[in-house]
Design goal:
It is built from nine helices and no strands. By secondary structure, the chain is an all-alpha fold. Helix 3 (about 70-110) runs antiparallel to helix 5. The protein is elongated.
Length: about 290
């Protein structure tokens, strides 16, 4: 078997010593964790080298094989910069992400008595829960805006969350009964839902961006959480429309959507806890 997949000579490679490369087969081209796209492409197509591949004559990867070590050096330098930035920002992130996690728990608990059933039977508890929930979310929003140097998505999430919280607070003081008030409540609910979705998207994206260098698996989970949130929202909209056509089917679908949103809320808290703990661990490494 050739010493390299692409046909280059390891001995004549000017990057060998700069990258401290042990050679293609033992280094970037190794099967399990090698980072060479050309080697990975060869293995995926069951070739030992590019020479036996019918696509090699016009393959962009093979034509750019001379620059692959340069790109690898750039990736290594970028990883070093990302690691240094991670350690630099970890004290601030460990502090504020933990506070956001604790405040999020308070917001969830305060949001429990904000259903219509509670509003009708214990209106004071409904108002108190809504006010505490709103104030807590505004505090979270201000913290997110404070983290502007970490991720621009956090700033957007904070702004959208403040707008959503204010709209929700206004909505609780609208009287029930008359159709004009019901219409006004609906007109406030729609933009409130839109602001909430925009806030969630930017919040999840912000968490994904800051955790990707510390824990890529968790970063992917944040992205997947947004996907599930979208699906649950679509399910809720469809269920609402079906309530007009088929009340029973719509009610069942709405119940499923509500369970899904509840689970998403719990998972979100878990991910927030894990994110905060990651940066706490990095801080402990810095101390050592």
């Amino acid at each position: 078997m050739s010493e390299t997949y692409c046909g280059k000579s390891c001995e004549s490679c000017s990057w060998k010593y700069k990258l401290n490369c042990p050679g293609c087969q033992k280094g970037p081209g190794r099967p399990i964790d090698g980072d060479c796209d050309i080697a990975r492409c060869c293995r995926n197509k069951s070739h030992n080298t590019c020479a036996t591949c019918s696509d090699s004559s016009y393959c962009a990867k093979w034509r750019g094989r001379a620059d692959e070590p340069k790109y690898r050096m750039e990736r290594i330098e970028q990883e070093k910069e990302d690691d240094a930035y991670l350690h630099k920002m970890s004290p601030m992130l460990a502090k504020w992400l933990w506070i956001i996690f604790c405040l999020s728990i308070i917001a969830v608990i305060a949001g429990l008595p904000t259903s219509n059933a509670i509003k009708e039977r214990v209106p004071n508890l409904y108002i108190d829960g809504t006010v505490i929930n709103t104030v807590t979310k505004i505090v979270i929003s201000l913290i997110l805006i404070k983290l502007t140097s970490v991720s621009g998505n956090f700033v957007k999430a904070g702004v959208y969350m403040i707008i959503s919280s204010i709209l929700g607070l206004i909505n609780i003081f609208i009287p029930d009964g008359e159709w004009t008030f019901e219409l006004l409540s609906l007109l406030l609910t729609i933009p409130n839902l839109i602001m909430t979705l925009l806030s969630d998207y930017n919040l999840y994206t912000g968490y994904s961006n800051i955790t990707v260098n510390a824990d890529k698996t968790l970063a992917v989970k944040w992205d997947e959480l947004w996907t599930w949130t979208k699906r649950a929202c679509i399910m809720t909209i469809v269920a609402t429309l079906l309530m007009v056509l088929g009340p029973l089917l719509g009610l069942i679908l709405l119940l499923i959507a509500m369970i899904a949103m509840f689970i998403i809320g719990i998972v979100r808290l878990v991910y927030q806890y894990q994110s905060a703990m990651i940066f706490r661990s990095v801080c402990n490494e810095n101390v050592k």
